[in-house]
Amino acid sequence: MKPKQQVNADVVARAISKAVENAPDASRAALGDLLETLARLDSKIAVRCSDAAAGILLQLSPSQQAFFLAHALALAAQPRVAGEFFCRCADLLQHLDEDAFRSWVEKGRAIGQENEAAAVAFFRQESHASISALQELRKTVHIAEVTRLLHLFCTAIAGRTVGVKSTAEAPEELIRKGHHLPLTDGKSIYLPGLISRSASHRENFEEYKVLAAHQAGYIEFGTFELDIDALLDHPALAAFERKGKVVDSSLLASHYELFFQMFDEPHLVRDIFFALEDGRIDFRLREKYRGLAPELAKVAASSLNERPEPLSLPLQEALVESLIRLSISGQIEEDLPHEALPIYRRMCGFFSRVLRPHATVTDSAVATASIYSALHGLPNISLRSPSCPDALREAHDTPLSAPPADARSDGKLSPTEVFPYQPVQPVAYRGQTAPELVQLAQSLEILRDGITRAEEDGIPLTRELLEELLRRGAKIKISQMTAKQLAEASGLFITDLKGVLQEKLKQLTPEERRKFAKLLEQALVLKREDRVSERVFYYDEWDYLIGDYRPRWCRVREIPLEGGSGEIVARIQKEYSALIATVRRHFQRIRPEMLKRVKRLKMGEEIELNDAVDAVIERRAGLTPSERIYQKRDRRTRDVATAFLLDLSASTDEWVVEQPMPPQGHRLPPARRSLFDIFARGDAEAATADSRMPETAKRVIDVEREALVIMAEALESLGDEYAIYGFSGYGREDIEFFPIKDFSERYSEQARRRIGALKPRKSTRMGPAIRHTLAKLAATGCRLKVLILLSDGYPQDFDYGPDRSSRDYGLHDTTVALQEARRNNIHTFCVTVDQAGNDYLREMCRGENYLVVKKPSALPRILPRVYRGLTV
Amino acid sequence: MSEREMERLGGVERFFEEHYFTEQPYYLPIRDEVEVFRAAFSERLPVLLKGPTGCGKTRFIEYMAYTLQQERIKQGIESPDTATSPLITVACHEDLSASDLVGRYLLKDEETVWIDGPLTRAVKIGAICYLDEIVEARKDTTVLIHPLADYRRILPIEKKGQMIHAHENFLLVISYNPGYQSVLKNLKHSTRQRFVAIDFDYPPREAEARIIVHESGIDMRAADQLALLGEKVRHLREHGLEEGVSTRLLIYAGKLMVSGITPRRACELAVAKSITDDRELEQVVTEITRSIFES
After folding, report:
1. Which residue of A206, A289, A632, A784 to mutate against B (max B Cβ within 10 Å)?
2. How many domains does chain A have?
3. A325-368, pLDDT tens digit by residue?
4. A36-56: per-residue pLDDT in tens?
5. Chain B: which residues have CB within 8 Å of chain A?
6. Are residues A124 and A164 in the same domain?
7. Which of A75, A801, A821, B212 is the most buried (most CB within 10 A)?
8. Measured in Å, how far apart are chain A's first and last C-alpha atoms?
């Protein structure tokens, strides 16, 4: 190991004394001990720890501080390990109890005795051993570990694709009451980042399940399908309509907004509605998912503890709170003032109507109106106020069907006694979903889909055009347009749609226009995000220094290649037409022999009945029978899937060396150009542009491209399944993976264009690209799976291992990735044009599974032979 | 032992897969498939049954074969004493050759004897010949059925130099699961365009629950929960599960429950573990099971 640069002793001493000074009194001595010990061994780490100390100790309680420092001191013999532990592991004490923490640290220490680097990774929580040990000990459940599970769970329950994300990723507009509350936008369910309330991992997971199921329940049980038209005819709502409220004045209003607008007190009606609707959802969940019911009951019961006592609230709020408590626990509140009980009982009666197996969101809305009528007229006065009983008695005498009298206006109560209605505290496990926004987004999507469909029919009203129209405030009108009309509109052709829009989108104020444009954008962003999230993949990486995997270390992004032209491929087809014809002929010969069953053999697996009978007949007839009566099962029909993985690193920009020397004045690029050369000059493309060569000269990438085109032509005639991918990237977070032709895809004009669009890019991090390709191969389900890697050098990336200049890390990771392939029964073969390839490929590919092409220009001829050799 | 009793115990040697029914097979019509099949049969149009595994294709054809034969007996067209098997099924596989279907010469004592294959036999006795999972058979074998599957209704027997006109009650029925076949294994158009296609899918929840009750003997409440599980798991069809859980598996789960296995365990065994090898998907199915069943 290189000698560490040591820090000036004064600087160290100052840093330590400052850290000790800032530390809490009780921990000063222990911290001082630790830092002094570290300083003796590695002053740099001592300084780093000193600087971080204040922040670290702050998150711990005094007893935790002592515990934590003691552990750090115990590790101090290996200063790098202790440093990582000290700087990174304090927050684990929030999630682990001390015993669990101790046994986890012990594990790390044991690893450290064998391999210091592994222990460093362990305490950085970057090694597989570390994370799996944590998972066993921990009670906290993080959203990341259950995302896929809950995504599939919710998708199954809701009956359509539902994503699961952390509330931290939720669009800001949807977060109304804090990041800890779950919500859904109708497409994704957002859940809190972690749950650690219960004592065990399983129980905390169950809580996640309950939260997710409640949100999925909105989708499954039709919360977002509220239809205002169905409500307006209902007698319970007639009273509100008669009041002459303009129900349909809003721009692009959802049914929910129209519904809530019918009532004077928006908070009151919302609180009532959600108490009822959430109660209905819970009821339906309990009925349908009996196994979930106990967990739901548990989460519900614990949520009751966090709620205010109804008696501590003013009258209206107390009654609403009682209703919410009823909807959570099913228990009827008995503590309310005697006079309030009749109203409360009536509310209970209305509530019971939504607790029916077939109750819908309409029932909730109707019951909401009834309860609102009962509550709205009440004064929101303290329950302890002397005038409370009178007010209640009076309210009780008023028949429900009559328009509610406003008790506050008749002057019996002094205004100081009446509190304005305060919205209730949300129920944590039910979350903060805003159905009006979900409905709106859904309507917009329908509108957008309608436009897209119209586009497909060749009518050029583009999305951009529509947005442009909205921005300019063209004569587009949207008011009075309900979701239903939008839905109807979407079925029309664009000309009609325009008509509908023109009729409906009217009098947009600038503010409304902005709102609409924003919503439209949001709907589009949601769609885009869905797409993006599907195309990012995480893979582990093997770190030979620690002898363990680093989990989820590399992020692979699948990026569609665009902008190429089919001409390049056409040119190659022309140039190599003779070779293509030959290869095709060769390949066609493979095919028939594969299909035949081998019969008439002298020996084989079984007797061929027809031949055997013939032989017996011949013998009877006095002829010499043929001995060839056996048959052998040949290999079945070809069941081969092959992936060609193409190295698109910057070095593929190099000229193929055997070509005649380039024209004078042109400098051949260095053997492997440093990445920074390229970035310094802009990007790989710029690098390509100024190193132009005469037409006959070819770069590595051109040769690779030619080989691919010939392979593709040949494989089309053979009918084997194959795919072509390219990869490059820069850093572990950004590995670029370019699907050129997927397995299910045809060798279409588009695929050909993508081959044309191939160009040198950045680094060569092979491991994750191989792993991603393996995943794709495994998904084909073919019997024989082959991965052919075409490259021009050793794996390399700026953070492929701690030491940039060392190849070892990358080689080890790639070797392990190839081993993974073998373990999964996937054959791999590396073809390289790097003449030094023998050195490392021998280790990397084990034995015969590689080929160094002496003359790169021969690659197009060699590749089909390689393919035949591997698959026949 | 009576023949009926022997039939029940199984293990009786029969020609190919001839089906003799002692009672009406249970089948719950979901849509208009019974009427469609009846119409196709009355016009002697070959039928293609499309649908995922375990959704009731085979049971449907058994039910139809039996029902149609019983009607003929009632009408006096067939006599109950001489009635032959109304249904012959062939499970197709990759090595199924033309002789396996049509027949071959075998040696018997000192001479060769022609033995009819299942298809020939069906053509002769006027049974419904059901070629299950037809795409599994090789394409050159499949071509053999072409002259039987159009207006000609003939079966050429090359080896004997003969041609048989199909019996009036003969009908060719094939089945095909479009779900899991790879691109390579698709039905040739010249084949598929000779058939009237009836689509099958897993039954809706209520109907599936009734089927589970009948087939497994479990009570309605548990059957309803099993059907709910089926419905939910099938939502995952495009999320890594190639096929949803089949009605057949739900019935198995029901049978395990009848024999005293707890519902959660029964579903884990018969559903979660059978439909996928992906650990996470298995866990998802287990979580759904846990949500539906209390124990």
Report:
1. A289
2. 6
3. 999 988 887 778 877 888 888 899 999 999 998 899 999 999 99
4. 888 888 888 888 888 888 888
5. 94-95, 99, 104-107, 110, 112, 138, 182-184, 225, 228, 232-233, 235-236, 238-240, 264, 280-281, 283-284, 287-294
6. no
7. B212
8. 49
